[in-house]
Amino acid sequence: MTDTGRQQPPLRLTRADLDALPNYVPGRSPADLARELGIPEAVKLASNEVPYGPLPGVVEAVAEAAAGAHRYPDMGVVALRAALAERYGVDPERVATGCGSVALAEHLVRATCLPGDELVYSWRSFEAYPIIAATSGATSVRVPNGPDHGHDLAAMAAAVTDRTRMILVCNPNNPTGTFLRRAELERFLDTVPDDVLVVIDEAYREFVTDPDVPDGLTLADRPNVVVLRTLSKAWGLAGLRIGFLVAQPVVAAAIRKVVTPFSASAAAQAGALAALAQAEEMERRCALVVAERDRVTEALRKHVPDVPTSQANFVWLPLGDRSVAFGQACEARGVIVRPFAGDGVRVTIGAPAENDAFLAAADAVLA
Ligand code: PMP
Which of 89, 92, 214, 295 is the right S-S partner for 85, CB 3.0 to 4.6 Å? Predict the structure, then answer.
């Protein structure tokens, strides 16, 4: 109301185009669902986390870092970048860290695209990509997944125009678990113009078992290739928020320049260093997840024969219009999965008992 008492239209203080933007949907809280259903606990298989808790030594390292919480963290992330560089056999100048790899994806778009420039990616893929593109003013060019639910690289190559500045390749792909093989990915990279950045998002790399799926780092000597990784998944640090990328030194330096200052907290840096010292245990846990992934896939194929083979820590149920109802039916049985309306349902691989709970629900709903 103004002082004359007349109603004014609401002031628009933020960009109108944001109204059309989908919200990122975080996995639902299992505690809330358990309360709602009146059961002791619900199972959450919706956010691609690993079920085994932080790696040994992480909690202690974070607690120690917390004692210095009144100080700013190391803005250069020197020790962690050195540890990552050593583990992956690259120069520390080629490494940049961010507040999760999702933040790095955002920084990459900001560092490459001016408003109206094009960002090419396969769809359906990681739900943050359209949000990142829109908030950066870049134009999303979505290339539909192929019939196998994975990237259609020929169509993606054909979608590149003079305005394309960056391409996101998600391998393995979230949420479908599908994967690209070395020969096809190399052929694709050969066709992309040298001045277009290709970001290979390998959030799930540690769960890959097929030797034909290339480690992006073996492709990262190409000047326009960036490999994006995270410590959120296999390394069990989703709550601490650390991701990293490996790129050519000029690209990594540009990203370090645009990164939000101090966004890698002291706790995150210390936790990540402790986790990296536990690579063997990380691999052991991944092997457990992989064995369960194969078991769950086989069981689901009895109901849905075209469940794609997954190389990640989740599986995809291409249920189309039945997806949301399936998700609701699983929730009613105490299991939280991640439906994508009209498309499919992503189910994270958990501990064996959690997967059993999901399979029992799936048996009941899909039978
Ligand atoms: N890339 C992909 C493909 C993902 O699935 C995710 C997490 N869901 C991320 C990046 C971001 O992970 P984080 O920000 O936790 O590193």
Answer: 92
* 297 closest CA partner among 340, 338, 358: 358
Ligand 1 mutation target, pool 180, 232, 311, 347, most atoms within 8 A of CB: 232
User: Does ligand 1 lie within 6 Å of residue 106's CB atom?
Assistant: no
Among 327, 334, 328, CA closest to 39:
334
| Separation CA 99–CA 44 (nearest Å) | 23
Instruction: Read off the pLDDT of residues 312-344 as tens digits, 9 standing for 90 and up.
Output: 999 999 999 999 999 999 999 999 999 999 999
User: Is-contact 178 150, C-beta < 8 A?
Assistant: yes
| Nearest alpha carbon, ligand 1 atom 1 | 203
Give exposure, 245-280, as e/b (b: 16+ Cβ within 10 Å).
bbbbeebbebbbeebeeebbbbbbbbbbbbbbbbee
Residue of 330, 367, 321, 324 whose CA lies nearest to 348: 330
Residue 1 has pLDDT above 70, yes or no: no
Q: Please state, in angstroms and rounded to a whole number, the distance separating the CA atoms of residues 335 and 357.
A: 7
Q: What is the mean pLDDT of residues 242-260?
A: 96
Q: Indicate the helix (H) or strand (E) that contains 79.
A: helix 78-88
Residue 2: the pLDDT is 47
Name the β-bridge partners of 226.
Answer: 199
Q: Lowest mean pLDDT: which of 7-21, 227-241, 297-311?
A: 7-21
The answer to whether 201 touches 170, Cβ cutoff 8 Å, is yes
Question: Ligand 1 pocket, 51 CB below 6 A?
Answer: no
Tell me the CA–centroid distance for residue 231 and ligand 1, in Å: 9
